[in-house]
Amino acid sequence: MIYDDSSERASGAFSLIPKSGGRGETTLQRLCERRGQVVIIDAHSHILSLAADPGFTVDYGREGSLCIYRSMGKLPSHRMPTEAEWEASGLARRGWPLIGPAESLNDHPGFDKIVVLAVSPQHLDGHLIGTVDTDGILGVEGPPDPEKCNDYIAAVVRTDPEHFIGFASVNPAFKGPAAAVAELERAICGLGLTGLKLYPMYQHWAANDRDLAFPIYRKATELGIPVMIHQAGSTRIDAQLELGRPALLDDIGREFRDLTVIIAHCGLPWVDEALFLLTKHPHFYAELSYLIATLTRRDLFLFLHRCEPAFVPLEKIFFGTDYPGFLYDPVKLRDKLTTVNEEAAAVSLPPSRSTNCRTSWAATSPPSWASLTPSPPPNPRRTH
Question: Angle 214-223/177-185 helices, nearest 10 degrees?
Fold first, then answer.
């Protein structure tokens, strides 16, 4: 997203940048002064490995990206590719490349902030998977262990707190909701992470499950943090599509009226369903990662242009990339968004407008998006 501090005051949006006074925290005012009141943020990125065995991460990336490579004619569409065909394509390791903090910063030139999302532990194909530091570059003690996913993300943030924003993750189906709630409190109050990412469809639980999920939302509300939920489709074979429908989040909006909910990937392929949730629930937002890579610049313009007539303020939609996956180049995707109004004349429509900054978009004036990450909650146990 591209953030203008005046828009928060006008819209009442919650703050992306933690307030000053904590370890390594930067005030929004300082960032705005440095960039003329514009802050550029990737609201959805990943980092490190997905399992203690790096080879599993490669295979996981292949499975998820195979459809992309087939659609590009890089791999056979009528059968599984051979290892030789994978290697010849040059794409064998590009689905989920192993990225550390230095690589992430290098691939985000011009960005002020990068949201890095933990992946919580689950069992998949005989492996315990989740965010791990297989190379031991972050100084987290012990062998690589997905149960320390939040420790790794906190360690990433410590490498450059001026740029990285860390979101924790928990899986209530792994050791039960009580353990998930305890881990969430540790991650926020002890490790200093500032949001939560959930993966229901991958971990085979429903986002509206009152026994498994609601205790997590209750704790997140108490902590005052936003919850980003992968409530969208997936090309992973094991993921349950029926658990990805954005409409499952309606129960959360009805029950937890003060909880900030972010729908990952704009709910693709159920984009209209996700947008209607933004219309209905005041504290629901969505981010563009994955979706933005599937759209041409013209289709992106048309998508944004129809949001406000559908009663969705553009301040409710964030820029994100899903970096470092294939096709998720932060600079290319940012440039696609910031030049989107160059498509206006070709389709005989006026430039899209952001209610967040109360001005028209222009090719030389990027849109301004609402902010993502919370101010620290009024929780005396929080260690800042």
Answer: 20
